[in-house]
Amino acid sequence: MKNKFFANSFAISILVLITSCSDDFLNEEPVGTVNELTLANEEGVNGLLIGAYSLIDGYSSNGSPNGGTGEASGTNWIWGDVPSDDMHRGDTNGGWSQINDIERYEVRSDNEWLSGAWGINFDGVARSNDVLRVLATAGEVISAEKADQIEAEAKFLRAWFHFQLRIKFEKVPYITEDVDPALVKNDREIWDDIEDDLQFGIDHLDPAPSEVGRASQWAAKALKARVHLFQSEFAEAKPLLDNIIEEGPFQLEPHFYNNFDEEHQNNGESIFEIQYSVNDGAGVHNSGVDHQTLYPNVDGLGYSYSAPSFDLFNAYKVEDDGLPMLDSFQDDLLLEDYQISDTEEFTPTNHLLDPRVDWTIGRRGIPFLDWGPMSGSDWMSDQLNMGPFMNKKNMFYKRNKGVISTESGYWARGVNGNNFRLLRLGHVLLWRAEVAVEENDLPTALALVNQIRQRAADDIVMGKVSNTTFEEGNPIIVDYSQPAANYKLGLYDSFPSVEYARMAVRHEMRLEFALEGMRFYDLVRWGIADSTLNNYLASELKDNKLPWLSGSSFTSGKNNYWPIPQVQLDLQPGVLTQNSSL
């Protein structure tokens, strides 16, 4: 959860407001306004900086075109997971049409969720630029060392928000503090601008910030490496990744699942994460408010609007040696309890599975953290139309309910303060493996993939459920001394070719990063979105499964990026232009 650095953001802003007064009433600013001269000191600039940090979660409390339903979520579940082969939108059939269009690749420029994604990120850019502009007027009031640190943090954030825009919309303007935003065209590539801001961060950010939540030098290096990967600049990404691995203070957590629970926030693997908080006097505005709909229908928490796909579940199938079924996992899809009521008989598959599956996906007959075994369709809004699986990575533990979850009144009770890891060492290791494959350094790629797999090999979900039905009043019998399912995870002996290694590394990224908002962007940058997503749709919809998704198809070049919101084009005619492929 957020530490005092974030919790005090509102107090700092209020303090700045109430202390700006004058003996001359003719020169007084209207109540509730603050001019830049008033803020041109360390406290004022830091308050502006905290305001910029506050938008990393993708949620604004001011009700501008960015609500709390996920349009610009920092987790990227809407734009990185839903249109990928990892997740369905959940909800009930016919509901939430804006996301339905995203999953079907039928988004028009007037889809209001586009405005949310565009608006919140450019709001973040504007706030970052406010910091830089006011900082420039402060002069010697702020020490040179402190000014460099503040500038570096603001430029990191500006790069972060522009990066979020670039991977979604492709053609976006790069807005700096010294330009009129209304006049900046989106007629050129902005990767170099992002890199320049991140390089300033690398040169000036503190490698070990004194306050949890602030961007570090390592975060700038990790993000810059990711930016290079989006451009297939493997030689440029390599030294950044190597430096983090060899010189950084990070180590893999002993358990894969530590990266997703509230008791291991800001852990030794974490490089940069969204700092959520609850029960701090801010209502829901510092929490993961946009995740409220993603939780299961258990204990009144959520609405199960995040439904992992059949394809993702089957990607965790393994051979007898514990290695993935890289090119055959779509054969004979395991459907689990799809179209089977919780009161009808069903037993989970006995197929060998990578144990990470049951820390990633919730499914019937398997313990769901400490909430008890998932009983099936009664935990979901529409199991018939959305499939039988649930997102497990973003759920908090029942033992922390009321501590990690909000005590404030709200329409959904799942609002909580469980942080989200945006950058972690696991990402860096597999990105470095990707670089190694593209440089034909297969031994390095093999070692890095096996390092990730070794960490997860013993992460077994315990609790064998005897029940085959879950009627009300029927006690659930669980033997917690037994594994919940048939798990096995083996290490690769070798990568016999570049092609095999590339497939193995990409598959490993999917297994390790599933439901973390990365998959769709990776498919696009690898140039395989067309073949992968259309093969997935053919498999996912076979035998009339998920009929609401029938007829969907991905078109390369057209669906790689989303339309620029029509309202923005109307506001800036002759300045902004729509993607030519749309």
Automatic annotation (TrEMBL):
User: What SUPFAM superfamilies is this protein classified in?
Assistant: TPR-like (SSF48452)
PROSITE patterns, from UniProt?
PROKAR_LIPOPROTEIN
In this protein, which residues make up the domain named SusD-like N-terminal?
93-229
Q: Where does the UniProt entry say this protein principally localizes?
A: membrane
Which keywords fit this entry according to its UniProt record? Cell outer membrane, Membrane, Signal
- Any Pfam family from its record, for instance, is SusD_RagB
Q: Where in the cell is it found?
A: Cell outer membrane
Q: Which protein family is it in?
A: Belongs to the SusD family.
- The name under which this protein is listed is Starch-binding associating with outer membrane
Q: Which organism is it from?
A: Zobellia uliginosa
Task: Provide the taxonomic classification.
Answer: Bacteria, Pseudomonadati, Bacteroidota, Flavobacteriia, Flavobacteriales
